[in-house]
């Protein structure tokens, strides 16, 4: 008799170890002035392509990665040049094809631009690649020096605010937005933001600090070169799952991690927002407030309190929304997390950070 058990996990890290003997199915291309250079046969076996997100230390942001390339024939010169052409700020694409489907039917794994080249390894060249979403969104927003009217948001859903910043403040055509992902994410965020942007500042840093660290989620560029916003959802949400079972897993292990448990939710926010002009500059005024909620059952059971701290000057006062945010957060983190690591075939690597993986095990 066999028993089948299944559980669902939220993906926090997506890592791909390039398997020995399978390099031909991994694709890598670099776009230069002279054309597109195929680097697939130079990807080193055992090299790692990794994206990860830490929800408790720093910000939930788009990822960078490093790729290692064979250089035993001095194909790359100093600073990663190919011939006379520099790779810096040039687009790199990484993807793979399944062995069982026709060559050329490719799934993109990562797309970005080269920020740094390192040839200190023996007969190797390493490119540090900046996620294309970060590159695209690295633009300033807000009023220019001397402008005495701030950028004002009033009672706006944070996803609508994200879209406004990308389209109206950063100047992207609306077609660059993956509308489906934005609409779906909005349904999970029943809250409103209000406030002012009073000075010129970096757009992606603003998005990370004022929006993403409150609502979670991440950006990436999909196969259609659209900006996708993926909200990190609770593990029990009834959505399409990536299935991990004996057909696509080679090995796995799991351990309990109490360091990733959180059983107190602390929110610092601003209300009564107003602005004035003083000495030719915009002055921002607000009243700082604090709200918190404990998950008492978890605190009692484990004998310790581990807080998760959120700070936002934009979130509106709404205790109903705060309660919903905290309850939803506790459903994910008030128990020690079971951290599972999978060594898988390439089709499972297609999952993005924030995707839900359903693990099926036969006993």
Task: Tell me what you see in this structure.
The protein is α+β, with helices and mostly antiparallel strands. 18% of the residues lie in helices and 41% in strands. The protein contains seven helices and 22 strands. It has helices at 132-136, 158-169, 179-186, 203-215, 296-302, 319-333, 346-349; strands at residues 4-10, 13-17, 26-32, 35-38, 48-52, 64-70, 91-97, 106-118, 124-131, 140-141, 151-156, 193-197, 201-202, 218-221, 227-230, 242-244, 249-257, 264-278, 281-294, 307-312, 337-344, 356-362. The strands form eight sheets. Strands 4-3-7-8-9-6 form a six-stranded antiparallel sheet. A hairpin with a 2-residue loop joins strand 18 and strand 19 (281-294). Helix 2 (158-169) packs antiparallel against helix 3 (179-186). The longest helix has 15 residues, at 319-333. It is globular, with a radius of gyration of 23 Å. The model is unreliable at 1-10, 16-24, 56-61, 100-104 and 235-239 (pLDDT under 50).
Low-confidence segments, given as residue ranges, are: 1-10, 16-24, 56-61, 100-104, 235-239
SS elements, strand count:
22
- Sheet bearing the most strands, described? 6 strands, antiparallel
Q: Classify the secondary structure makeup into a structural class.
A: alpha+beta
- Percent of residues in beta strands? 35-45%
Form type = globular
Overall mean pLDDT stands at 75
Q: Helices and strands, in N-to-C order?
A: EEEEEEEEEHEEHHEEHEEEEEEHEHEHE
């Amino acid at each position: 008799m066999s028993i089948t058990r299944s559980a669902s996990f939220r993906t926090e890290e997506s890592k791909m170890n390039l398997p020995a003997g399978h390099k031909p199915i991994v694709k890598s291309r670099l776009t230069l002035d002279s054309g597109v250079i195929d680097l697939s046969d130079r990807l080193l076996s055992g090299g790692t392509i990794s994206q990860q997100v830490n929800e408790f230390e720093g910000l939930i942001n788009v990822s960078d990665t490093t790729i290692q390339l064979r250089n035993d024939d001095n194909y790359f010169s100093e600073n990663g040049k190919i011939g006379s052409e520099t790779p810096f700020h040039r687009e790199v694409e990484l993807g793979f094809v399944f062995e069982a489907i026709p060559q050329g039917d490719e799934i993109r794994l990562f797309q970005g631009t080269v920020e740094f080249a390192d040839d200190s390894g023996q007969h190797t060249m390493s490119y540090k690649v900046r996620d294309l979403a970060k590159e695209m969104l690295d633009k300033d927003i807000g009023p220019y020096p001397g402008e005495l009217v701030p950028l004002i948001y009033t009672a706006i859903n944070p996803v609508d605010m994200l879209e406004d910043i990308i389209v109206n403040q950063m100047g992207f055509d609306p077609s660059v937005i993956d509308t489906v992902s934005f609409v779906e994410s909005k349904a999970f965020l029943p809250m409103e933001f209000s406030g002012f942007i009073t000075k010129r500042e970096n757009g992606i840093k603003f998005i990370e600090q004022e929006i993403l660290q409150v609502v979670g989620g991440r950006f990436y560029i999909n196969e259609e070169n659209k900006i996708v916003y993926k909200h990190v959802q609770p593990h029990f949400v009834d959505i399409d799952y990536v299935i991990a079972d004996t057909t696509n897993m080679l090995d796995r292990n799991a351990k309990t991690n109490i360091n990733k448990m959180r059983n107190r939710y602390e929110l610092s926010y601003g209300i009564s927002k107003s602005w004035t002009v003083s000495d030719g500059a915009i002055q921002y005024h607000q009243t700082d407030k604090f709200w918190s909620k404990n998950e008492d059952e978890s605190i009692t059971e484990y004998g310790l309190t581990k807080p998760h701290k959120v700070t936002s000057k934009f979130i509106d006062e709404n205790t109903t929304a705060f309660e919903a945010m905290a309850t939803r957060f506790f459903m994910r983190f008030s128990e020690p997390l079971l951290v599972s690591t999978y060594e898988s075939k390439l089709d499972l690597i297609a999952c993005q950070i924030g995707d839900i993986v359903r693990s099926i095990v036969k006993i």
